Amino acid sequence: MSPAPYLLGDDDPELQRLAAQHEVWRAVTEEGWRRAGVADGDNVLDVGCGPGLTTVELARRVGPDGSVTGLEPSERFTYHLEACAAELALENIRVLRGDIADLDDEATFDHIHVRWVLCFLDEPAAAIGRLARALKPGGRLLTLDYFNYHAFALAPRIPAMAAVVRAVFDSWAASGGSLDVQGQTATACEQAGLRVTEIEQVSGITRPGEALFGWPEAFLRGYLPRLVDDGLLPWDTCRDFLEQWDRRKAEPGTFLYLPPLLRVIAEKPAGP
Ligand SMILES: C[S@@+](CC[C@H](N)C(=O)[O-])C[C@H]1O[C@@H](n2cnc3c(N)ncnc32)[C@H](O)[C@@H]1O
Description:
The protein is of the alpha/beta class. Helices cover about 45% and strands about 20% of the residues.
């Protein structure tokens, strides 16, 4: 059975959203690579790499003696990554069109990077089992994803936001994914024989006017019409939410509690 298409699609607006998202989360992402020990000469797998924003940076980080494989099911995203790699003359990038469910590598990679992918999977624990097998002994798995999405809130609170957050959460669930996924990742890693070395919340607070504030705002403005079309959000709740959001955003002291994002790092034991 072929996998369901990626919930958010691979058209130009999604490509632009991913690029803008990468800009605001670049420093956190690089900090994760530093903490996981991604270094010169490493062989890295970038799972669900999308158009390859992290793949390109990982390729620079590991240098010509290392290599990065970008695994991605979207044809359009893989073409994009191939074009970027060629334009930037990054010969250490390998692009693999495929699904995580088809990964059958064993003891191949020093590091595996999985950012904003587990939340789209219907069987994230099985995927982690496959990734654990693909790691070399001593290798590390680094994941970043959502937990406790219902905590996402504008403060002071606006009445329509809880319904919007619930509708986003339900739309993920309807597609087989979960915006709570990172609550299970550490357990799945341990069950797959990895040792969890870090569980860290990397999201926090942002205020209107900051680049980070624009990240969830752009997502919601783009996604809400779809929730209405899919019958997950009443049209008048959507309208009230946008009005309340704009009013609150203009008030001094407003802040946004971001949907909690957790970084989990796990290591494969080096063996006897
Ligand atoms: C939100 S994007 C994140 C892209 C990239 N990891 C980043 O952080 O910029 C999610 C990506 O996961 C990919 N994806 C979804 N389901 C997948 C699966 N079963 N196997 C591999 N990749 C998958 C999608 O095609 C999409 O490119």
